[in-house]
Amino acid sequence: MVPIDTQTLLLGEDPKRARQWSVGAGLLFVASLCYFAVVRIADFRLLDSVLWWQGYAVLLTIFVAVQAYSNGGIGVSWLLVFAAVAGVILNFGGIALTMGRPGLLRLIGYAIPGSAATAAVMGTLGFGIGAAVRRIAG
To answer: Taking Cα atoms as reference points, which of 120, 8, 4 lies closest to residue 73?
Structure first.
C-alpha cells in the first residue's frame, strides 16, 4: 500500500485539475437545474425519456469515474455527484409530494441530505471504478 496524504485523497494529485473539476461541478449543477426544470415545466414525456433517471445515474457515475481516472480525488467525486443531484432534487425529482409544493427552505432541506447520501454512494462507486481502472492501466 502506498501512503497517501488526506489532501491528495480528497482533491487528487493536481490542485489545478481539482479546481477545474470543481468549476465543472458548478456547471453540472446549473445544467442539471435547468434541464430538470424544463422537464418539469414542459411536462413533455419525450423530453423526459431522452434522459431518464437510471440513465442519468449511469452517465453521472461514468462522469465521476472519468474524473477519478484523470485526477483521483474522492472529495471532488462527491462534489460532482452532490451538485448534479441537488439540481434534480430542487426540481422536485425524487420527492414524493403528497400535499402542496414545499417552500424553498424545505426544498433545500430535502436537497442537502438527499444529495449528500447520493454523493456518498454514487461518488464512491464512480471513484472506485475510475481509481481501479487507473491502477490497472498503469
So the answer is: 8
